[in-house]
Amino acid sequence: MPDDFRAAGSPTTGPAIRVRPAETADAEAIAAIHQASRRATMPYLPPQRRTHEEVARWVREIVLMECHTVVAVRGPEVLGYAAVRGELLDQLYLRPDVRRQGIGSLLLAEARRYRPGGLTLHVFQLNDAARAFYEHHGFTVIATGDGSTNMENLPELTLGWVPA
Fold this sequence. Notes:
Elements: E1 7-8, E2 17-21, H1 27-41, H2 52-66, E3 68-74, E4 77-85, E5 88-94, H3 103-114, E6 119-124, H4 128-136, E7 140-145, E8 156-161
Antiparallel strand pairs: 1-2, 2-3, 3-4, 4-5, 6-8, 7-8
Keywords: Acyltransferase, Transferase
Organism: Streptomyces piniterrae
GO molecular function, one term: acyltransferase activity, transferring groups other than amino-acyl groups
């Protein structure tokens, strides 16, 4: 697997943004991104009950061990991450301050490269921004749920993407 899947940026805009495989050393940053992104973009969620240390342990022991996980970085700084488990895009989160800069699209492109036959994902029905992002990238609704299968108990959609 190459170290640098995609690059963006130029000498005038600063260091390039790279997507690379996540490492155990990234767990703390990934946990911080996960928590900050959920707080900033999903205010309808119940307050987080897990500590940063618990989320970092989940990242190290579950996400990094069971998923194909990549991070978007600018220099040493982790800006976002994506995790694919089988055909499921299980996680895609960005730092709130770097949204709408193409970083999510870079991470999604790597997920598609990893699973060229197609991807599915789950998104809360209330998450209009995520739904618009995925629809813009060719995902369509393939199922709906009442929230009984997620820990937040919120209605969700299953979206799917298959190559043309």
